[in-house]
Amino acid sequence: MEKEIAQNLLEIEAIKFSPESPYTWASGWKSPIYCDNRLTLSYPRIRKQITKGLYTLVCNFFPGTTAIAGVATAGIPQGAWLADKMNLPFIYVRSKPKEHGMGNQIEGHLLQGSKVLVVEDLVSTGKSSLEAVEALRKAGAEVVGMVSIFTYGFDIAKQNFEKAEVRLASLTDYATLLEVALEKKQITKAQLKTLEQWRQNPDTWKVKG
User: pTM higher than 0.90, yes or no?
Assistant: First the structure.
């Protein structure tokens, strides 16, 4: 499953590599890779495969789940499809409360004591994902864990999830992605080395002149 998901993301160019001319993330980090899993929404076969994969993760790791929560915005459709497949209530979590109307951060009906599984499209440092977890906990939910399509597997993310006591399960990860990309000749061995170096120190990585 891990390699198949990675192959599909590469096939539709949801993941792009540019080691020589890196992208700039919102955090300011320079990155030789960019992931936009929103593109999967336009491909019925792939989005169905993702829903099936997320369902398998829930069955294997979070069998007590009673509600699904998507993280706005990219986690919303994935979470809604998963909730539909599992016949469970669905809610979603904004990055911050609305500044008008009811001022909600959590949209939908959250029953007190619900065992909520959080759905993300990808996990980098985990900061925004875990902010959603905190909002749910404050609202009275028991967060059983989180699933995502893709994770970079940064050490900082692992530390953040451990500190927050949240278990993360992902359909595919960075190491698998690089393995598939090399097999498919979408990156060279030299580029692979650069991509592996970035993965070790993403906050300080720079393109070598």
Answer: yes
